[in-house]
Amino acid sequence: MYSQLKIHNYLLLYFYMKIQKIFIYVACVVGLVAFQKNAIAQLPTFGKGFYRLTNDSLKNTKSLEILNDGKKDKIQMGKTGTFTGQYWQITAVKEGHYRFTTKLLGETKALALVVEDDKMLLRLVKVNSKEDGLQLWNIEPVEGKKGLYSINNVNSGPMVILTTGKNGLNLVYREPTTPSQHWQITPVNSKGK
Predict the structure, then answer these.
(1) 3-state secondary structure (DSSP) of residue 66
(2) What band does 186 get if pLDDT is binned at 50, 70 and 90?
């Protein structure tokens, strides 16, 4: 009798633990769905025009630009001016993912993450009709910083983020409070203002 009671208690405990795991799983799924709906509702929207990308640590003194040097299209932070290489078109490719092209080069080349010699580099590459993650970027509002965004490549994941530093433009690990990882995206007119 005692062993049957013991087995009965073990079975009850076993089923209780299984039910508890199911409830935890359901709660996680419900929470994740709610988080995703909230995140999607907060996605920035960009019109057909062009935008200037400046960095919070550099303020408006320098802008993300393409320097068309005739050899390779170099991506750098250049002195803010009325240069078409600083006019970025931000195109929503699919929910939450964007493609960056410039007025200088049109929609033929897009900002991409490229791996060369085991290093992640930023380059302009021919636009791929496929939804290639190397050319797709996430733009997320920075919590508590109205008008500022963090930008990361879809393939690198949310922990590797676009930033400026001593060596120019970089991809580094996310540090949410670092101003060099916060970007302002401002509409520009045809005169660059």
Answers:
(1) strand
(2) very high
Dist CA 192 CA 83 (whole Å): 7
Question: Is 52:145 a contact under the CB 8 Å cutoff?
Answer: no
The pTM score is 0.72
Q: Which residues contact 150 (CB under 8 A, 6 or more apart)?
A: 139, 140, 142, 161, 162, 174, 176, 181, 182, 183
Give the whole-angstrom CA distance, residue 120 versus residue 163: 13
Average pLDDT of the segment spanning 169-175: 74
Cα–Cα distance, 133 to 35 (Å, whole number): 23
| Residue 73 near residue 53 (C-beta atoms within 8 A) | no
Q: Is the pLDDT of residue 49 over 50?
A: yes
Domain count, the chain: 2
Q: Are residues 168 and 79 part of one domain?
A: yes
Would you say residue 193 lies in a domain? no
